[in-house]
Each structure stands twice: as C-alpha cells, then as structure tokens.
Amino acid sequence: MNLGGSIRINKCGLLILFTALFFLTYYVLIGSSTAPEYVPRDPNVVNLRKLLIGAIQAAEKGGVEVVTVSTHADFHVKSKGKTAEGANNPVTEADFKSHCVMQFGLHHIFPRLKIISEEDSSKMSCPDVKLFDLDPTVLRESLTIPDETVDIDDITVWIDPLDATQEYTERLFEYVTTMVCVAIKGIPTIGVIHNPFTQKTTWAWTGVATSEDLQKVKKTELTDRTTVIVSRSHGGEVKNISKGYFGENTQIITAAGAGYKVLQVIHGNATVYLHTTNIKKWDVCAGDAILRAVGGKMTNLLNDELLYGPLESVLNTKGLLAAYKGHHEKYIERISDYRTNKIIDKV
C-alpha cells in the first residue's frame, strides 16, 4: 500500500467542471428566456417593463375566468342598480372571478401597488384565486423595452375585470374586454385591452412600445364625414345630440364597451367616440393610454384631459370625446359652437 503517493489533477477535467459551474450559476441567477421574471425586492420602486408584462398577464388571466364562466348555464347575474340613463347595471360571477385573479395576481408580484377596480375586494371573498408569476414571453422577442423604474407612490393601476357586462349576459361577446391601465402621476401611460373570446390583446406604453396590431394602424385622414360610435344603451338621445354637434349627415354606430369603442376609433372604423353622460374611469383609462400612444386624444366635452391619480374621483361627469388629434380639435370646436348657439337661442 502506497499512502504517500501523489494525486494528479486533470486540467482538462477541471476546465470542463468550472465551465459547467459557470453556466449553471448564470442560468440560476439570470434565468432562461422562458423563466419567470425576477422582481427586485425594493417595494418602493416599480420596473415599468415588468409592470407592463404583469398588466398584460392580468388582463389575459382575467379573460380566462370570463370565458370559463360563459360556459355555465347560470352567470349568477345580480344588479348594482340603474345607470344614469335608466339601464340595468348588472354584475356576474365572471366580473368577480376576473377581478380576483387580476387584482390579487398583480399584488402577488407588486404588493404595494395602488389598484382601483370596478369591483370592490372588501365586499367579496376570493378563495383559491389563481396567482401568476411574470412571464416575459407575452412580449414578442423583437421588442427592446427599457428597464425604466418609477416610485411606486406615483403609480395608480386601474382595472376593469369585465367591460360590457350587460352584453356579456346577452352573449354579445364581441364587445367584452378585460382592461388594465397604469397611470403615472395621474397620466395614463400603459394601457391593455384584451378580448377574451378572440384572444386578441392590444397594448401600448406611450412613447416606448405598442402591440403589433397598433404598428399596422393607419390614421384616418381628416375629413368632413363624421362617423360617431356611441353606446347602444343610450338610445335616441345621444343620436340626436351627435347630429346636433356634427351635422344631420353624421353616420352613427351603436356599440358596447368603452374599450371596444376606443379600438374602433383607433382602427378607423369610426372617427369619434362620443359619450354624453357619466362614465367611470376604469372604463376609459386603458383606452386613453392606448389612444395617446398612437396620436389620439381623449377629453371630457369641455376639452379637459382626464386624470387618473389615486385621489381623483372615479367618476367623470362631463362626457367624453375620443378621436385622433386632428379630428378631436375639429369636433371640440363644433361642440363648443353648438353649445354657444344654444345659449344664444335661449337669450
């Protein structure tokens, strides 16, 4: 027995071992392209690229719940009361389930995030809610999006777990969307509108990036022909107002869902979205952000931009006008002239 023998080190073997350890460490710390995103532990700062990913996932995960409930015979429809126009304001099991996964899913990743939802978590329980981790594959690989950080106290997230609930109960699913909006210091900056039944997600981060469908959008040329899209629940009154504002030859389209209507303007199927009564800000924040990103503008009928800060009222009481900027200026001027002439006529 030779206890004093020497040990020979295989240099090639060591090189392979250290190389393997390096790549293993890199994979664990950095992660693969399909691994969940790592979220920094500082609870006071939010990475907006990661919040964009989370917002897209929240809208899509909420949409899964909306579709699942739609397969049931009973939607468990209740009423919140009547709208200002006298229409029923329903709420369903889908609204609640979508809300739970959207709000709790975002809070799972961003615990201190200020979220304002159409549905109130304090009035419901969310048992067995399906949480999610960030999945960067919701963004196409060709996108290069910066890691921009913002103080969390400057951020307010508005979610609409199910837009066009009435139409959902009527199975008019083309109007149904789930929406997420990220406002920074009250300004709508990131918007996500997802149709659960077509699986189409439209999103934008103003000044940074947009979903692929928005890159194909061609702005409608300024024209004297006006096509107004209005709520199908408002009946003849808004049609008469539209013709008063824009002329007797105005073409009027009736539809449901604020998210749906904004997208019709963006894609050139209407030149203006007009709403003449009260509307909640979770209905319009996402559309406002997306419209800004493609060169449009949304204001109340007095031409004031809407603010979406945490202390702002959730209710916009002064109507709504959404259009591309060139059209918007023209339409606001017509509305102002119409109202001025109405006042003169009364004198």
Helices and strands, with pairings:
Layout: H1 11-30, E1 45-47, H2 48-70, E2 78-82, E3 88-91, H3 93-109, E4 114-117, E5 149-151, E6 155-163, H4 165-169, E7 177-184, E8 187-195, E9 200-205, E10 209-210, H5 212-215, E11 227-231, H6 235-246, E12 251-255, H7 258-266, E13 272-275, E14 279-280, H8 281-293, E15 296-299, E16 315-316, E17 320-324, H9 325-346
Helix pairs in contact: 2-3, 7-8
Task: Please explain how this structure is put together.
It is a single chain. The chain has 347 residues and is an alpha+beta fold. Helix content is 36%, strand content 23%. The chain is built from nine helices and 17 strands. The strands form five sheets. A six-stranded mixed beta sheet has the order 4-6-7-8-9-10, sandwiched between helices. The radius of gyration is 25 Å and the shape is globular.
Number of helices: 9
Distance between the termini: 120 Å
- Low-pLDDT regions: 26-35
Give the class-level CATH name of the largest domain.
Alpha Beta
**Lateral arrangement of strands in the main beta sheet:** 4-6-7-8-9-10
CATH topology of the largest domain: Fructose-1,6-Bisphosphatase, Chain A, domain 1
Which CATH architecture of the largest domain is right?
Answer: 2-Layer Sandwich
- Rg (C-alpha, Å): 25 Å
Q: For the record, what is the CATH homologous superfamily label of the largest domain? A: Fructose-1,6-Bisphosphatase, subunit A, domain 1
Series of secondary-structure elements, N-terminal to C-terminal:
HEHEEHEEEHEEEEHEHEHEEHEEEH
Would you report the number of β strands? 17
Structural domain tally: 2
Largest sheet data: 6 strands, mixed
Protein name: Putative inositol monophosphatase 3
GO cellular component, one term: Golgi apparatus
Pfam family, one: Inositol_P
EC number: 3.1.3.25
